[in-house]
Amino acid sequence: MAVAATVTNLDWSCRHTWRAASKNTLWCLVGCSIGDMGTILFFQLSGIAWPVLAIMVLAIVNGLLTSIALETFILSRQMQLLNAFKVACGMSLISMISMEAAMNIVDVLATGGARLTLWVLPIMWAAGFVTPLPYNYWRLKALGKACH
Prior knowledge:
Elements: H1 2-8, H2 15-46, H3 52-75, H4 81-89, H5 93-111, H6 120-130, H7 133-143
Helix pairs in contact: 2-3, 2-5, 2-7, 3-4, 3-5, 5-6
């Protein structure tokens, strides 16, 4: 109940918070895209015939893992490696999963399967960026916590 009240009373016009949320979301997008799109590209180029759903689930898992790895690397410059890994693992899975789902839904709807083409990449990235952005803003503003 307190969270609902916080959401309704939240100031959604803070440019500083939108910038910070956008930066966090962009780093997440980079990390997620490496694993996600790398997995899809592997199956696309290798010709291994897996069901589209299986490829997408594996792509999401790999996207989460590479995002955590990138975040650990970034944070390790500010803290000890073990602490950086713990913080990275404690990131918002809601944000990352929604990003991954948005990118993969766009891919399937646009290409008819688990396929990467140059024209679909910007659309996937845009969907992956915009989908978790309001949540990341809320997380920063209402909870004072960044995903990254």
